[in-house]
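Job type: complex structure
Entries:
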Amino acid sequence: MSNDAIEIGISDVRKLVEVCKKNYQKDYSCMALTSFKRRLIKAVELGKFPSISKLIEELELNKNYFTKFENDIIIPQTELFRDAGFWRFFRDSITPVFSSYNKINIWVPRCSTGDELYTLCIVLKEKGLLDKCKITATDSRVGNFKLIQEGKFPLTKIDVSENNFKSYSPDGSFRNYCEVTPLSFLMQTSLINQVEFKNYDITQGAHVPDKFHIILFRNSLIYYNQSLHDNTVSLLTNCLEKNGYLIIGHRESIYWCRDAKKFTNDVKNESAYKKIVD
Amino acid sequence: MQYKIVIIGGSAGSFQVVTSILANLPKDFPLPIVLALHRLKHIRHGFVEALNIKSNLPVIEPFDKDSIKPGNVYLAPANYHLLIELANTFALSTEEQINHSRPAIDLTFITGAYVYREKTIGIILSGANKDGALGLKKVKDFGGLTIVQDPAECQMPTMPLAALDVTKVDYTLRVSEIIARLLSAAKL
């Protein structure tokens, strides 16, 4: 995939943003530019358009195309138990903090393809905490929820997920939690019994009107530009209980954000930030 | 300055070459160096530490949105693509693997060449697949300086040979010559 044939310039991105705002009330102006361009190239390829201009034309003329467009630019999560080292840390250092709570309120603001959600549920189940958890999984695309609720993942992910799980729990087996079929694997859907799915688009400033003990939001901020990244961190900060944890990706950071001082980062190598100021 | 960034891509057989380069560049080397090296996705610790042992310049794994500054060597973090943004900052991505790799060398080179244009120095080292070939071509297309490690010296010559296949690389050099070329390019 060289993408050599498809060139997307800044003016193309601007035009697309304008069209989406005007026709679909969806604001893509705050996406990190380079990764957003790559997602657009993917949409051009998947829609079999000869150019980005033709894709933009289709968005203007054909209202039915927008759902496919949103689908085509989705950012899938990479694998279950991504960063097994982090999940060991979460299991051993973060879950004990909440084990005496009657109810643990958790928000997964971009559940995408469900990898992080199922991973979270397995970890909580193995710690005997899953039944005490109220997990809210949100996404801008309601269409995602059906696949997650079916527990269906492409078979191409089984090896990496199994290897990650082995690193997380050397004596355990990932296959205890799933069933393999010819083209996919199916996670046990009982794992997500405590999960409520809701339609919120955090990039548009929407959030669940609640306070949480844990917000799991790994590898989404990387797709936002600096302004949206900063604003989103503030939004999430306001949704966290004091002493609650904001969990982001291993190479994401909040140190330059305006609400950075409300957090402490106990273990420097792990991207779990504890809110210390309300 | 004629050049503003050095981007180095490598895979199997490139570790010793990279440590040798970093041991032979001075502390005040004026160009930021970006290392797009294939690496085991689940190993988060150890690689940067190993590179730092002999390096005269600090080797760090950047955070998303960190600025690219001279005096530093930046190593693409495990299981992310390392992109370069117009604001001279890094951007990370978790999109699917390219050339079976994440980080993909092509992506760092292509996005870097787009930003730094003719001020880019691109170097492809030893490796067992073709990742980086199209990336180095992009550097050439924008007028930057393109170098491959001499395939005869490489543990795995596939990567530099693939690069030579798709573009007229400026120089095919042994490691000692790469170091000399970098030192003289930095003075321009």
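Summary: The first helix of chain B runs from residue 15 to 24. Residues 109 and 188 of chain B are 22 Å apart (CA to CA).
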